Predict the 3D structure of the following.
Amino acid sequence: MENDSETTKQDILIKLKELDKLLVSFKPIDGKVPDTGWIKEIRTKINMSRRQLGERYKDVKTKEASPVTSQAIKEFEEGERAGTISLNSLRRFGKALGLKLVYGFVHTNDSFYGKILPHYNEKAEILYNDLPDELKIKKRGHYQVINSAVQHARVLMLDFPRSFWDKK
């Protein structure tokens, strides 16, 4: 049984490392969106009019649809700048421009561990504060108790119970 638990913990660590590797692949992009938004930025850089983009967008959406008007394209561009455009619309614009939409998240820290480690400390402090007073030994023994609480928090994280992410 102990062996299964260790395997599970190893699997979780491997999955976290894989997640880190995946998220790092988006790091060069790092959310740098042109002030005008991608649609308008690309359209203007390749010297394409809104009318021309509207015709291409129609072809992506459905062959039977009417061309998308210049005004509608302008509204899509404004929606992208405001952050209200849908992912499906962005995907279609990508196809209309001969591009592929790439969607993902980027670390705000160096790794997923950077997110989890501060949470260890928070959990350790909560676990320490929940200990009976007689176990809260000052000076020499204090560090052993804290270390034990940190170890317990690490075990909690590796098992990933839903309660690990609770504030209390």
User: Anything to note?
Assistant: The mean pLDDT is 75. The two ends are 30 Å apart (CA to CA). Residues 38-96 form one domain. Residues 9 and 158 are 6 Å apart (CA to CA).
